[in-house]
Amino acid sequence: MLGFLKNPVVVTAEINMNLLALTVLGLISRLRGLSYPRAVVFDEVYYGQFVSLYMKRIFFVDDSGPPFGHMLLALGGYLGGFDGNFLWNRIGAEYSLNVPVWSLRLLPALAGALCVPLAYQILVEMHFSHCAALGAALLILLENSLITQSRFMLLESILIFFILLAVLCFLKFHNSQSYSAFSGSWWFWLLLTGVACSCAVGVKYMGLFTYMLLLVIAGLHFWHMIGDQNLSNVSLMCHFLARGLALIIIPVTMYLSFFYVHLALLYRSGPHDQIMTSAFQASLEGGLARITQGQPLEVAYGSQITLRNVLGKPMQCWLHSHKNTYPIRYDNGRGSSHQQQVTCYPFKDVNNWWIVKDPGMQQLVVSNPPRPVRHGHIVQLVHGITTRYLNTHDVAAPLSPHAQEVSCYIDYNISMPAQNLWRVEIVNRESDTDVWKTILSEVRFVHVNTSAVLKVSMSGASLPEWGYRQLEVVGEKLSKGFHQSIVWNVEEHRYGKSQEQKEREVELHSPTQMDISKNLSFMAKFAELQWKILTLKNEDTEHKYSSSAVDWITMDTNIAYWLHPTSGAQIHLIGNVLTWASANVAALIYMCLSLWYLVRRRRRIYDIPEDAWQLWVSAGRICVGGWAVNYLPFFLMEKTLFLYHYLPALTFQILLIPVVLQHLSDHLCRSLLSKSMFSAFLVAWFSSVYLVYCTFSPVTYGAPSLSVAELKDLRWKDSWNILIRKQ
């Protein structure tokens, strides 16, 4: 029974020494001296702020992209025990002892290191020789710009890692299609493709370009499968559903999960939540939640409310009035109604309170039971402190003469009667009988007499000194168009109990009492946050190191990342010049040869075997396609661009170099002499690549410090900005 113990248990394993050696070299090149410099390097000043906010669980919005990449950087800080206490205000600032620099930079460095063996594997899976695959990996290993970008707390190396992982998994899935469809490995690589794509998009929206490329290639492959008569309809449907699950449903689900974790971690109020709606702010701990907790949910006749404009631009503000009146005449000579001013005020103030009144009754308190206000009801809005009614009439607004002036009505006993009836329209209602709800309902107020809608002036201009520089509120004729400037929501709310004005003023200053919870669902919070990320635009300012997409191909620009405060040591984003030039030449050769082959094949002339042609085309889909989709969209973008935006496209272009070299060697160098000369050329060329890498290593790693003469020698192009201290 125990006879199997007579023989030893033997486990055998195949180890690809090329892959192992490349992984070790990648780790050495990216992890060596990772804590140096112990100072803020370029965009670490930007991403570090978000890491600190994660550590403190404070909500933020970053318009540069989804949160997954930020969470990975924060994970490094968490593993290193970072408490978030560091002021990220200046590039070059020395890190304090509580900042785990090595840990914060670890994940980008690991991602950059693993790109080296991934490049090797991709070329192997595209059915190129191990020699070509080794060349691709070494070119990635010796690319100075990729090394620099991966050694700091930045996102590009993580993005490139997930992009290459997605490509590799897709190739492995596609290669297993012919002999093991629906096997365990087939499912593994297909599902991992979807996971890697979602991670790439979750790091930066640039990952969407490669994701779309793989979807197109997968669609083409499936289109060819439809023509395969050996596959039944059931089998085709199973293939379609499997691809839909792995390449669409799983990435979408994972993308949502990134935001779920992001929102679960950042539950505290902070400076960024002011751009969110009142409902979103109220869901965060602290801030608005402390004010709104316990408010009545349903707005009723007699409710005391503050109204926040949903637009939030140029700043968040609340409907406001004060005792001052519009001047009889403006500076341009136009006359006004001389009524009480109504503005939008960007601060909490007792003059932001209004009372919802039933036009048919005189009382300003909530009845028992309360009578809720519904969509379509007519109301009057009474200013809480001055008790004057919100009004508009056919008088031009002070800064927007095409719109009507909005005021609080003062009876001057002249022929201008009050027009103070407003119809409540709930924009986000589910039915026409919806009740007006605190925070949750987005409403617009339509003037009954003139059909003008209450809104913040689109110009965002502030009133002159007589209006205390507050934002203009106008009445604009209702049109089919929709804009958030016409939408308001109740932020603070209480049920009024005091009929007497003095008692009511005391009430307006007191906190609310009732306890009704108003939590947003995850999908509502996700939809709002996603919309803010896509639409929130910081003012683009010209940066010293910004560049255009045209400059990237020939690397006519560089970026100074860090400069030692006393010596000449510095770090620059500069690529391996020879590699960049070779990548451009390889792309040009590929396109010219492809055009030549296509024309010749049209004439029934086949210069290369069919399998070589298919290999050539499939490699172009990945390498040239990857370069194109990650580069060309930048010509359509209206944003500040930097050289590092080109690195994903460059990575695909570098993979094309050994593809072209092997093709030239196999199909154009046919004599023994030409093959020998080509091999000698490759040795000389690759030695030159290594020499260029070594030449620029001091500004890649920031050490050793170079003299003024040595720095000047590194300025190979006049457009490069190498920092040289004045003697």
Automatic annotation (TrEMBL):
Its EC number is 2.4.1.109. It is found in: Endoplasmic reticulum membrane. Pfam families: MIR, PMT, PMT_4TMC. Keywords: Endoplasmic reticulum, Glycosyltransferase, Membrane, Repeat, Transferase, Transmembrane, Transmembrane helix. CDD domains: beta-trefoil_MIR_POMT1 (cd23281). Residues 296-359, 370-427 form the MIR domain. InterPro entries: ArnT-like_N, MIR_dom_sf, MIR_motif, PMT-like, PMT_4TMC. Its main location: endoplasmic reticulum. It is an enzyme of class 2 (transferase). One of its GO terms (cellular component) is endoplasmic reticulum membrane. Pathway: Protein modification; protein glycosylation. PROSITE patterns: MIR. Belongs to the glycosyltransferase 39 family. This is Protein O-mannosyl-transferase 1. It comes from Nothoprocta pentlandii.
